[in-house]
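Task: sequence design from structure.
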């Protein structure tokens, strides 16, 4: 939470100009009326003026998921939600198509289904499984980046004639990072070149602890083309799901996640997977920055349904605006509460945007100042005849990063898979260091390392820390040529050890 100095002065009932002077006396230098102050700092300042600040978040206006149940074991079971991942051309779409044809809704409606982002399949045993109908890592990652961990199980498809490939490993990494259990489907076993044992061997090499070698990861051999083994795959999913014991309330305010949304001739439509409670036509829901009075609920065959219990994928009609994939859906008791929540969120988003802009500006300013200081130093060096003479900054690049009050500062750029991990990594980095050398995080964001990150790291002489994202090859090569160091980790304490080692390398005895 940030507050502008102007607004703060008003809140304290002090003339803005006077307030600026007083802030200067309190040690805040270079503050203007447009400057923003962090809520915590503002609370301290407010105390100086005899106020007892209470932190008011306004949270009560929002719609939040209810707390987890105290004893889930008494709740009804719900279908598992499954995502199919794997290397390109290994058969994800083929397997999904095969399954979609056996979808519950298709059986009831002459085999016709449409793509709505998910569908439900029911085995002869009568237990349904919900498949997310968007193969590939992008969908899974987008969801996770937005904090939506809706997948209970990942089916990792590996073609029997091609074995473990880069995207197989990547899918594994994502599933592990999300702590989602996997089932391996060795596909294309109908093909001549199928080498099932070789695939199992390669999986073991990739540290997948498969059953055949004493682990607990199930491996099923299938053909998406002939349908061979597909029943086994479904059985295996249900068995794992029983072990994981997925259960949810049927009643109470419903919750779910937006899988996709689009503008159709019938209006604004979004597919939702319900995770708790039951949705019915006429209910009010809010998702992200929009809300709906549910006009219609439709299944994957396009048929109207009267209720959507947990695990059900449904199309919801009646949105005011299109919600975004990955938004959480929460049922509201009435229209007013839905509207209030949405406007509260809009306000929050505005403030976040302002804060982000503020950070970018101050950071740009600082980098610019550093650049100038370096140029000045280089010029002075040249004047004294000790410079290399090949231009400003030359030769300075190898220097130690600048100092603050006699402490050497080492710059870091932090990237990570989700917002939460980036925050955790930044916090952990900021805790290490000594009076001789300290880390300073210049930039942090979610997502893989980009060319611009490398560029930034090269000019600010930063070390890039990457937590659980995959760095594209060209970016990695760019970092190599520019001499930018990348620390890759998926475990925070390893990462911190590495950061520490990096810091101590700056403590080499001076000549
Ligand atoms: P995706 O990129 O993982 O979605 O792979 P696709 O489902 O598009 O499959 C790639 C190719 O492999 C297509 O030509 C499919 O027809 C073929 N294919 C997929 N599964 C099987 C299978 O079980 N057996 C055989 N023989 N071919 C398959």
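Answer:
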């Amino acid at each position: 939470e940030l507050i502008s100095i102007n607004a703060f002065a008003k809140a304290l009932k002090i003339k803005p100009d006077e307030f600026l002077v007083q802030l200067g006396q309190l040690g805040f230098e270079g503050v203007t009326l447009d400057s923003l102050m962090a809520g915590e700092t503002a609370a301290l300042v407010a105390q100086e003026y005899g106020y007892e600040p209470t932190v008011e978040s306004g949270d009560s206006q929002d719609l939040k998921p209810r707390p987890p149940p105290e004893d889930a074991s008494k709740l009804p079971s719900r279908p598992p939600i499954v995502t199919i991942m794997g290397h390109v051309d290994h058969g994800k779409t083929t397997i999904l198509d095969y399954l979609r044809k056996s979808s519950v809704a298709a059986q009831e409606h002459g085999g016709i289904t449409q793509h709505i982002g998910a569908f439900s399949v029911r085995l002869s045993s009568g237990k349904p499984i919900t498949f997310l109908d968007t193969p590939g890592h992008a969908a899974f990652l987008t969801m996770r980046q937005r904090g939506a961990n809706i997948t209970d199980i990942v089916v990792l498809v590996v073609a029997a004639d091609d074995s473990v490939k880069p995207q197989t490993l990547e899918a594994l990494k994502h599933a592990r990072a999300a702590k989602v259990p996997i089932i391996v489907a060795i596909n294309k076993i109908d093909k001549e070149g199928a080498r099932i044992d070789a695939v199992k061997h390669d999986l073991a090499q990739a540290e997948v602890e498969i059953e055949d070698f004493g682990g607990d990861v199930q491996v099923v051999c299938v053909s998406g083309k002939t349908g061979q083994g597909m029943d086994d795959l479904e059985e295996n999913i249900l068995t794992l799901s029983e072990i994981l014991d997925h259960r949810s309330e049927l009643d109470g305010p419903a919750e779910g996640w937006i899988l996709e949304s689009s503008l159709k001739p019938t209006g604004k439509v979004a597919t939702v997977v319900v995770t708790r409670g039951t949705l019915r036509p006429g209910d009010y829901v809010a998702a992200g920055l929009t809300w709906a009075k549910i006009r219609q609920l439709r299944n994957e065959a396009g048929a109207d349904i009267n209720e959507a219990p947990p695990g059900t994928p449904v199309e919801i009609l009646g949105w005011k605006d299109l919600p975004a994939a990955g938004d959480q859906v929460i049922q509201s008791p009435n229209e007013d509460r839905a509207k209030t929540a949405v406007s509260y969120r809009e306000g929050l988003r505005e403030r976040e945007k302002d804060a982000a802009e503020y950070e970018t500006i101050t950071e740009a300013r600082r980098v610019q100042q550093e650049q100038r200081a370096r140029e000045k130093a280089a010029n002075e060096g040249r004047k004294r005849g000790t410079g290399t003479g090949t231009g400003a900054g030359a030769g300075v690049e190898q220097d130690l990063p600048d100092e603050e009050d006699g402490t050497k500062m080492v710059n870091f750029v932090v990237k990570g898979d989700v917002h939460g991990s980036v925050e955790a990594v930044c916090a952990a980095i900021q805790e290490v260091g000594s009076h001789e050398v300290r880390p300073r995080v210049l930039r942090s964001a979610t997502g893989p390392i980009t060319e611009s990150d490398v560029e930034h790291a090269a000019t600010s002489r930063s070390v890039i820390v990457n937590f659980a994202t995959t760095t594209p090859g060209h970016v990695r090569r760019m970092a190599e040529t520019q001499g930018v160091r990348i620390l890759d980790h998926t475990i925070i304490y390893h990462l911190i050890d590495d950061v520490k080692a990096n810091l101590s390398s700056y403590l080499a005895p001076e000549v």
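The mean pLDDT is 84.
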